[in-house]
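Progress against Task 2.4 (sequence-to-structure conversion) is shown through the following example record, which the project officer requested during the mid-term review.
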Amino acid sequence: MKLDGFGILVNDMGKMIRFYRDVLGFEIQEPEDASNVYLVKDGTLFLFYGRSDFEKLTRRRYEYVKGLNGHCEIALYVDTFEEVDQQFERVVAAGAVPVLEPETEPWGQRTCYIADPEGNIIEIGSFNRPFQR
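Structure tokens generated for the chain above:
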């Protein structure tokens, strides 16, 4: 099997599209009232699924985390420590919820955490060098 993408179940598709497109810079082609949305960032596929549509599709009712979602995180990388600080300030000013202000960790990474409008955790981090796989 090959990993095809990563999906997030959402309540307010328009708000989430605007945040990921306008604040985080994801490429999004679908309109804000779509029930399924494809987001692309640096060649990685993300998907948004409307929660109620997913429940109809699977014929099940689900319980969802309220507030900040501690089940997973999305990690974004920048090349320098300074960019971590700059991006944190920029996205918080644009509406992201601050979770942890930028800190340099003992393992040498500078990192910070924000949350999207529905409480999903997003890390912005750097090892102070260009990204390498």
